[in-house]
Amino acid sequence: MTENSISPDKNQEPEKGFMSHLLELRDRMMRMVLAVLILFIALFGFSEQIFTFVAQPLLSLMPEGTSMIATGVASPFLVPFKLVLMVSVFIAVPYLLYELWAFIAPGLYKNEKSMAVPLLLSSIILFYCGVAFAYFVLFPLLFGFLIAIAPEGVVMMTDIGQYLDFILAIFFAFGIAFEVPIAVFLLIMIGATTPDALAEKRAYIVVGAFVIGMFLTPPDIISQTILAVPMLLLFEAGLLISRIVLKRRAENQDDEEEDDDYEEMSEDEMDDELDRMEAEEDKEETENDKTDDK
Fold first, then answer.
1. DSSP letter for each residue of 91-106
2. Residue 118: inside a domain, yes or no?
3. Which residue of 35, 59, 235, 281 has the fewest C-beta atoms within 10 A of its own C-beta?
4. CA 11 to each of CA 2, 3, 5, 153: distance values in angstroms, whole numbers, following the listed order
């Protein structure tokens, strides 16, 4: 009776733990959706201003008397709607990542937490930097080049839906490209490679950066170089940070080994000292016994 009454409780404990994790995940996902929804409601009233801001790099370079067009019947509504939704998610990224971090953090070790937080913050900052770089640096040069090469007699009147899809793809590409130092750092930290091995392959990485720039940007050397150069600089930054972290880790290991050696020596010295003290006590007792006999 006792064994049968205990075994169901033991089987139910893992199920309760799994269900509690699912409920926590559900609650956090609902808070994430709610955060995006609140931002969307707050920003939707400014959808025209947001779209004008996003389209400004192209509108400022278009010939006078031209404008963007909407070829779809519902495009004037759906395109700003989609843009505001993407902007809401973009702004809410730090909070969304915080919720994910709060969910997985209890299962991580202390050293994993200490490394994960800086990597998470760095990833967010680098992604935002990539998007800002694309908007303020790439788009003016890129759109100026595309307008300049338009054949004579061709008026550039871009559809707002196609423009939005194009810039979102560029934003995502540059945001991911700016994560290069994080990728380099993680590859080195998990032991997949070493800083010296990557440094030796620098020539191949330079070629690879320009190939990636060729695929992610329009077919002109300016846009390709604008993406490739920051990727190479970020690659070098990842190598430098990895070398610094590995050097500090090696120094800490050396210090720990020295401390261990010191502890081992002190124990031996204590044993020798105890043996010496016992020998002296025995000698004193023998001398005292001889004195008493006399």
1. HHHHHHHHHHHHHHGG
2. yes
3. 281
4. 15, 12, 11, 77
Distance from the first to the final alpha carbon of the chain: 79
Report the distance separating Cα 178 and Cα 263, nearest Å.
47
pLDDT confidence band for 262 (50 / 70 / 90): very low
Could you tell me the CA-to-CA distances from 120 to 93, 123, 124, 181 in Å, in that order?
11, 5, 6, 12
Residues 17 and 163 in one domain: yes
Structural domain boundaries, residue 170: 2-177
Nearest Cα residue to 47 out of 91, 90, 79, 89 = 79
CA dist 280 and 268 (Å) reads 18
Q: Is the pTM of this model over 0.90?
A: no
Helices and strands (H, E) in the chain, number of each type: 10, 0
Band of residue 9 on the pLDDT scale cut at 50, 70, 90: low
Give yes or no for a contact between 236 and 199, defined as CB atoms under 8 angstroms apart: no
List the structure tokens of 180. Answer: 């290069």
